[in-house]
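Final report, Chapter 2: Outcomes

The project's central promise was a pipeline that accepts a single protein chain and returns its three-dimensional structure in a standardized token representation, suitable for archiving and comparison. That pipeline is now operational. To close this chapter, we reproduce one record exactly as it appears in the project archive, with the input sequence first and the structure output second.
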Amino acid sequence: MRSRITRLSCRVAAVLVAGGTALVEVAIPAVAQPDNGVATVVRACTPGDYPPYSIGDGAGGYRGVDIELARGFAAALGRPIEFVPVTWATLKTDFVERNCDIAVGGISDQASRHAFADFSITYGTDGKAPITRRSNGAAYSSIEEINRPGVRVIANRGGTNEEFARTNFPQAQLTLWPDNLTIFGEIEQGRADVFVTDAVEGRYRVRQHPDLQVLHPETPYDSFGKVLLVRKNDLVVATALNAYLATQLATGSVDRLFDQWIGPTASAG
């Protein structure tokens, strides 16, 4: 059973805005220790299949931009963190049933998710772009080129990629894939023609799959915010999370995390 919050303290993070002289003070509420003195664990749901946001390391651990943000948030509260594996298809039910405080991993601010969680402030933007084999050239650049009979579209089940494919490619041949990890091999091996996913993920994935290309990632088909999910009506955690993310944005920490994964000299993987 989750421990009752018995008191509320604030820690103030003073940060210099990069490139300016203004001092920004951000109050970060900290969840108090329970009566037994043991810090309450921050439980973070994550699918762990969406780099550079979140990816499993094969040994039960996770890495990625969202993972580092989640770890930093827990540290700011003085609490340990536990990552809880979920899938995109079951995120709605798992988030509540597995008693998660937050959810991370490249989550878009999709309106339907408001039904089971609250959103943090937006910490980044992204949009959908196509991934295909380099040998195809620019053959699948536009939605119209993809939405044709005979074009083999593939999408991972249960998330915004499936929704985008169903909405925009009704004439194409759609295959739903059970995960977002092995799906790129289907394109490489010629069993699918194109996969439309977040442009940020595409920029990362083509580093590992040199035979693939992401088309026009700088001008994706759409644009949406990236957020972390918070338990419904948990104002203490929501306020603390937003204050923490504000400091990471103000100091450029979020940009530096993305640069490690998709920047000109990216080395994370």
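Archive annotation: The chain has two domains: 8-125+225-262, 128-214.
This record, like all others produced under the grant, will remain available to the consortium after the project formally closes.
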